[in-house]
Design goal:
two-stranded antiparallel ribbon; Alpha-Beta Plaits; 100 residues; 2 helices; two-stranded antiparallel sheet; 14% strand
Length: 100
């Protein structure tokens, strides 16, 4: 088998490893995979403009805006897919949206 770049890859899973009926026993999670590579636009956090209203954090579908002790932190770019929802909801212009 070859990947998208034509490089041969080794299959490590056999038919014995597949669950009966293809049943999925647990939920998938982006935490296990770096999915930020899909991004074409990138949000940029501007701390000076942020009022810590935290409107951005709950709307992020990838949980890429960490909140600790009631304050938001820098973006988790390993998982942010650049959807721009945080940019749209920020009332203070504390998030810019730039081409990746």
């Amino acid at each position: 088998m070859k990947n998208k770049k034509g490089v041969a890859i080794e299959e490590t899973m056999s038919w014995k490893d597949i669950t009966p009926g293809g049943i999925v026993y647990e939920a998938g999670s982006a935490r296990h995979f770096k999915t930020g590579d899909w991004r074409s636009m990138r949000p940029v956090f501007i701390a000076d403009k942020c009022k810590q209203c935290l409107l951005c954090a709950p709307v992020c579908p990838d949980s890429s805006i960490p909140v600790k002790d009631g304050k938001r932190g820098e973006f988790d770019y390993d998982h942010c897919k650049g959807c721009g929802i945080c940019y749209e909801v920020c009332p203070f212009g504390a998030i810019e949206f730039v081409k990746e």
